[in-house]
Write a structure and sequence with these properties.
The complex is a heterodimer.
Chain A (H helix, E strand, L loop, with lengths): L10 H4 L17 E3 L1 E9 L4 H14 L3 E7 L8 E9 L10 E6 L2 H7 L3 E10 L13 E5 L1 H9 L8 H12 L4 H12 L4 H16 L10 E3 L11 E5 H11 L4 E4 L6 H10 L6 E4 L3 H14 L3 E5 L1 H17 L3 E7 L16 H6 L8 E4 L3 H18 L2 E7 H5 L1 E5 L3 H4 L39 E3 L13 H21 L6 E2 L3 E8 L3 H13 L4 E6 L1 E3 L5 H5 L2 E8 L10 H10 L4 E5 L8 H8 L30 H4 L6
Parallel strand pairs in A: 1-8, 2-5, 5-6, 6-7, 10-11, 10-12, 12-13, 13-15, 14-15, 19-20, 19-22, 22-23
Antiparallel strand pairs in A: 2-4, 3-4, 9-16, 14-21, 18-20
Helix pairs in contact in A: 2-5, 2-6, 4-7, 5-7, 6-7, 8-9, 8-13, 10-11, 17-20
Chain B lengths: L33 H4 L12 H15 L6 E5 L14 E4 L5 H11 L4 E7 H7 L1 H10 L3 E7 L2 E2 L5 E2 L23 H8 L3 E6 L3 H13 L3 E7 L33 H5 L6 H9 L7 E5 L5 H15 L5 H11 L2
Parallel strand pairs in B: 1-2, 1-3, 3-4, 4-8, 7-8
Antiparallel strand pairs in B: 5-6, 7-9
Classes of the chains: A alpha/beta, B alpha/beta.
The complex binds thiamine diphosphate, iron/sulfur cluster and magnesium ion.
The site of iron/sulfur cluster has 11 residues of chain B, from loops.
Chain lengths: 650, 328
């Protein structure tokens, strides 16, 4: 594939050969074996933090370690604070990790904003050219390295301090005994195709970091417990949630789509724009979201199930056309990569506040299917599920993702593509005499133009209430029958989807219910709670609308049901899914735990909310710069703005 | 509208391109008659100009013997947009103002279909104005017929973007005050590559214009003055010879090197077309502008073809597998 990296011959001087097992600088150092580490890199967005983080994530993927990353981008386009957090573990990594074991601070503000997220006993690795930490705070281990100076020195004047990220990567590789060969291969791959000097510069920066005698200041080194592959375990692939959605759609045989740029949806359309032509398809950047959804419906009408997508504001614009898709029974996939709303809201933060919009957004009774992806891996598979449902039930299907899934990188087992790939073909076989596009007693199957109608009667696809041939009718009886027909498809679907499995205790005191990207922290929370003696389980919904049948049987087995979601408790005190579940099951034991700070749930937050009063749920480490109270931010309870506005903290 | 120069369909396998299975014609294709393409009886008011447009459309389909199953008739919302219900063929009655992007999707994915789009002045120039501009700019292959009655018919007499100043409507009881759209100017400016104007009382001319529009590669638009007898009667009498008006035709260049030809209209001359469009109402009729700028259909297809060729025309599975291998 790629040529082996060309290494600058600076190794000998630093005593760091390019081998997988580097000797430590001090012979008495023995690496400590760990199976999980949270590394947070904090700097400014121009520092390439994301790409350093991505290298670590991909390395972990290649080493068959699960990885989960978490990043924030400032709302401004460039400049400003940025973080990337990688949690690497040999076991199952579910959430990004509440606190960092290891914090790399590029600047004074990075240090100040993030030291509160460092675990007691954690390591602060800081650029001693820019940061002066409070060394009197004995909770942490301090490792100062003149990162800026050394990078400039290693690369020569022209590169200035660009390359600090790769220098850090070298340092981290040393401290964690990472696989140097694989990292160098990744760096080489990443810059392959560019000027050779760029690859060399990057490798030089890496080498400089790797060769730095960090052992003189950090007396500990770590090594991840080796991963023992299970039999038949597949190779890991590493990607972010938007990539997983895009490739899932491709696997599902979706070859056409249209969109309009908006954070955090844009990268899905960017990927599809350049990928689909390779598969003979096409993604169009439309003039606006109204145009985008209409184009997508045109593609679907033509016989190729199509995709459109956006974030909340753009979905609002698509709403009328989605109603048409419901009425005309046109298959369509609509992706909403949710961000904080309403309006422009918190464009780069995370929120799960578009659930109502997905289920109910539209005028009239306009049934549609809503799925929610729980992890990056699930983004891939849910795209396939969405396509299956859209085709089978000739219906619009929403996929809800969010900022956190869109921007984080996870490793997961490579999908078995040959079993999954769908070949999009048009069924142009002539339709028999008597064919009706909207037969009341059948599930509509959209017929692509080009298929002959043997009785010479062609179907009209209509947004007006119509008869079985698609022709307009004002008949009250027909409107009743057709409304029921469109709704009954969803009931049929509900029969087909299995109730999700409960994680943890199958019978007990507390059931945590979630949907979407909160999967990780909710499951981690249940794990912790059970370790502390709670009888608890977690149920995560992928099919949010229609809900699978049989949930009431699960609910009956628990004393409390707490729905955990990132949206507001609303006028009546319940989050969006909680409201729907309460309406559906008339179940007073359903409680709601919501929050609206635009940040992903931390495990501790969930424990605090759900298991209030238990000792294990108490917060142990005060975190500066972050509101410690998420539950009640009503004006009378807010003393200072700083309390409720996240101060540059992810 | 021709079917060349448009992207292949989505499938990467050779067998699954958009060539329909009946390309070999394993059936006898009967002559397409007016009766076969007629559906519901039109719900328009007696005397509405739109009837004649429908008649012209039937005529073109019959004359050209288009393949029945490949005719796609689309519309937004309005009296005029009811059109697809009256045609027995594949069709869609979409939402107000968005039929251009709907038609674009169909056109881009299915080069084998004949994509016709019908609508009103409000549908096209007001709520759908943005789409009209971008469809034109991108030069997406379709035939778009705008039935312009200078009024909102379906919603019963509100001012439309083409209503003349002074027109008394329910939303301008003392007469319209806003400058109306000049459809020809706007379409030429937007980048439409075939721009023509006709009149609903002139069936032969309409047929001619529709035929030329469908033979043109690209975004072809015809504006047709089609009278709303209910809410703006007599609006187009000044261009109707039977009502004492003059139906002035554009004298197109014949390229015959005669001195008279010098004075004739060169349809490829954008500025000359613009000048014609400036003429006071009722102006002239015929083809104002035509250019052979590449269609988006052709450009996208070229991109698809070169991309696939460069990759060695792999199967879908090979392609995605390769991508995943890079992510390991
Ligand atoms: C989103 C939306 N807004 C408004 C309407 C109401 N409406 C239907 S047709 C129409 C105007 C139609 O005028 P035009 O396009 O000129 O068609 P005509 O009836 O004159 O043929 C309006 C405003 C609608 N159907 N949808
Ligand atoms: S209201 Fe006007 S445009 Fe509508 S059908 Fe009647 S005459 Fe035609
Ligand atoms: Mg009108």
């Amino acid at each position: 594939m790629n040529p082996p990296p060309v290494l600058p011959q600076t190794d000998a001087a630093n005593g760091a050969p390019a081998a997988a097992n580097p000797p430590s600088d001090r012979a008495d150092l023995r690496p400590e074996s760990i199976n999980d580490a949270v590394i947070r890199l904090a700097g400014d967005s121009q520092d390439g933090i994301q790409s350093a983080g991505a290298f670590l994530a991909r390395l972990a993927g290649r080493s068959a370690q699960d990885v989960m990353t978490y990043m924030t981008i400032p709302a401004t386009i460039s400049g400003g604070p940025s973080i990337f957090q990688v949690r690497m573990g040999t076991g199952e990594v579910l959430s990004a990790g509440d606190e960092a074991d290891f914090l790399v601070a590029f600047y004074q503000h990075s240090y100040q904003d993030h030291i509160g997220c460092l675990k007691e006993g954690g390591v602060l690795l800081y650029d001693s050219d820019n940061v002066e930490p409070d060394l009197d705070d004995k909770r942490f281990v301090y490792v100062g390295v003149p990162i800026t100076g050394l990078t400039v020195e290693a690369l020569g004047g022209t590169a200035k301090d660009k390359g600090k990220n790769i220098f850090i990567l070298g340092l981290i590789a040393k401290i964690f005994h990472l696989d140097v060969d694989k990292l160098k291969a990744l760096i080489t791959e990443k810059f392959a195709g560019k000027d050779e000097s760029i690859v060399n510069t990057a490798l030089m920066a890496f080498q400089a970091g790797y060769g730095y005698p960090v052992g003189n200041v950090l007396t500990k080194q770590y090594r991840f417990e080796p991963h023992v592959p299970k039999e038949g375990e597949r190779a890991q692939i590493t990607m972010d949630g938007n990539q997983a959605l895009a490739y899932g759609l491709i696997a599902a045989g979706v070859r056409y789509g249209a969109g309009y740029p908006i954070t955090p949806w844009s990268s899905v359309m960017e990927i599809l724009r350049s990928e689909l032509p390779k598969y003979g398809g096409l993604f169009v950047q439309a003039e606006d979201e109204l145009g985008a959804v209409s184009l997508a419906l045109g593609f679907s009408f033509s016989g190729y199930l199509a995709v459109t997508g956006s974030a909340g504001p753009g979905i609002s614009l698509k709403t009328e056309a989605i109603g048409w898709a419901s009425m005309s029974e046109m298959p369509l996939i609509i992706i909403n990569v949710q961000r904080g709303g309403p309006s422009t809201g918190l464009p780069t933060n995370v929120e799960q506040s578009d659930l109502f919009q997905a289920i109910f957004g539209g005028h009239g009774d306009s049934p549609r299917v809503v799925l929610a992806a729980s992890t990056v891996e699930d983004c891939f598979y849910i795209a396939i599920e969405a396509a299956r449902i859209a085709r089978k039930y000739s219906t619009p299907v929403f996929i809800l993702s969010d900022t956190s899934l869109a921007t984080r990188i996870e490793a997961f087992g490579e999908p078995e593509l040959k079993d999954l790939m769908i070949d999009p073909t048009l069924d142009l076989t002539p339709r028999p005499v008597g064919f009706k596009p909207y037969a009341v007693d059948q599930i509509t199957q959209h017929v692509p133009p080009g298929a002959r109608m043997l009785d010479g009667k062609y179907p009209l696809i209509s947004g007006l209430e119509h008869d079985e041939m698609g022709h307009p009718t004002g008949s009250p009886k027909l409107h009743m029958a057709m409304t029921a027909k469109r709704r009954n498809k969803l009931r049929k679907l509900a029969e087909e989807i299995p109730a999700p499995e409960v994680y943890g205790d199958q019978l007990g005191d507390t059931l945590l219910v979630g949907w979407g990207s909160t999967y990780g922290p909710i499951h981690d929370a249940v794990k912790l709670a059970r370790e502390n003696g709670e009888k608890a389980g977690a149920l995560h919904l992928r099919h949010v609308h229609p809900l699978p049948n049989g949930l009431e049987k699960v609910f009956a087995k628990f004393k409390r049901i707490v729905v955990v979601e990132m949206n507001d408790q609303g006028v009546y005190g319940f989050g969006q899914l909680a409201t729907i579940l309460r309406a559906r099951f008339c179940e007073p034991k359903i409680e709601s735990a919501t929050k609206t700070d635009g940040l992903t749930f931390r495990v501790k937050e969930i424990l605090e909310r759900v298991f209030e009063g238990r000792s294990f749920a108490a917060r142990k480490i005060p975190r500066e710069g972050i509101p410690t109270v998420h539950t009640d931010t009503s004006p009378e309870n807010v003393k200072s703005l700083k309390e409720v506005v996240p101060q540059g903290v992810g | 509208m021709s079917t060349e120069n448009t992207p292949t369909n989505g499938s990467a396998t050779a067998t699954a391109t958009a060539t329909p299975p009946d390309a070999t014609l394993d059936f006898v294709r009967e002559k397409l008659t007016k009766k076969a393409i007629t559906a519901d009886h039109p719900t328009w008011c007696p005397g509405c100009g739109d009837f004649a447009v429908l008649a012209s459309y039937y005529k073109v389909i019959e004359k050209r013997q288009l393949e029945h199953e490949k005719i796609v008739t689309l519309a937004g919302i309005g009296c005029s947009s009811r059109f697809p219900y009256f045609v027995n063929g594949y069709g869609a009655h979409f939402i107000h103002g968005r039929a251009v992007p709907l038609a674009s999707g169909i056109s881009l994915a299915r080069p084998d279909l004949h994509v016709f789009l019908f609508g009103g002045d409000g549908d096209g120039f007001s709520i759908g104005g943005n789409h009209l501009n971008h469809g034109a700019r991108k030069n997406i292959n379709m035939t778009y017929f705008i039935m312009d009655n200078f009024v909102y018919g379906l919603t019963k007499k509100q001012t439309s973007p083409t209503s003349p100043i002074g027109f008394k409507s329910k939303t301008d009881p003392t007469g319209a005050i806003d400058q109306p759209v000049n459809p020809m100017k706007q379409l030429i400016c937007a980048g439409a590559t075939f721009v023509a104007r006709t009149h609903a009382t002139q069936v032969n001319h309409m047929v001619q214009m529709i035929e030329r529009a469908m033979d043109h590669q690209g975004f072809s638009v015809i504006e047709c003055l089609s009278e709303c007898v209910e809410f703006f009667p007599g609006a187009f009498d000044s261009a109707n010879p039977r009502k004492g008006g003059a139906f002035a035709l554009i004298d197109e260049k014949k390229w015959d090197n005669t001195p008279e030809d010098e004075l004739r209209h060169d349809v490829t001359d954008e500025l000359a077309a613009y000048k014609l469009a400036q003429l006071p109402f009722p102006g002239v009729f015929g083809v104002f502008y035509e250019s052979d700028r590449p269609t988006k259909n052709a450009l996208e297809k070229k991109w698809i073809d070169t991309t696939r060729e460069k990759l060695g025309n792999p199967t879908d599975l090979q392609l995605l597998q390769k991508t995943f291998d890079r992510m390991k």
